[in-house]
Structure prediction request, 107 residues.
Amino acid sequence: MWLTDKAGDDGLKQLGAWGATKVWVLENAAFAPYMGEIWVPALAELAAKESPKAIFAPVTSRMREFVARLAARLGAGLGRRFGGDGDGGATSSWPRGRSTRASCSQR
Prediction:
């Protein structure tokens, strides 16, 4: 799931390079600059409709705040930091009823 004010081919290619096989894009000028009050309801609605297995976000102060709000809105568990390829890892949120633990593997 990608929330952005302007989606581009480069962003989609990067998500594919990270292993995404399906990406839902929410594109709206209202998504810039970040405001949790706008982002959370939009992504929560899409997550409720599509039931993703997990939602990952980069580890930044903004995304930590966003994922915490999103997890609370979805009634989901909130994972901690997961390893990556040196990019700082990711936090994630799972829909209700799913495990709050995950293992990540390099491809």
User: Anything to note?
Assistant: The domain at 2-94 is CATH 3.40.50.620 (Rossmann fold). The chain is about 35% helix and 15% strand.
